[in-house]
Amino acid sequence: MANSTSAQWERLKALAKPTLGELFAEGDRLAMLSDRFELEEGEGIRFDWSKTHLDAAHVEAFEALADAAGFAERRAALFAGDVVNPTEGRAAEHTAQRGVGRDESVAQAHQNHARMAAMVEAIHGGAMGEIAHLIHVGIGGSALGPALSVDALARADGDGGGALVDVHVVSNIDGCALEEAFAACDPAKTMLAVASKTFTTIETMTNAESVIVWLRENGVADAYGRVVALTASPEKAIEWGVDETRVLPFSESVGGRYSLWSSIGFPVAIALGWPDFAELLEGAAVMDRHFRDTDGLANLPLRAAFADQYYTRLRGCQTRAVFAYDERLALLPDYLQQLEMESNGKAVTFDGDPVDGPTAPITWGGVGTDAQHAVFQLLHQGTNLVPVDFIASILPGDDLAPEHHRILLSNCFAQGAALMAGQASDDPARAYPGDRPSATILLDALTPMSFGALIAFHEHRTFANAVLMEINPFDQFGVELGKSIAKQIEAGGTSFDASTEALLAEAGVV
Ligand code: F6P
Question: Which CATH entry fits the domain spanning 95-278: 3.40.50.10490, 3.55.40.20, 3.30.70.660, 3.40.50.720?
Answer without folding.
Answer: 3.40.50.10490
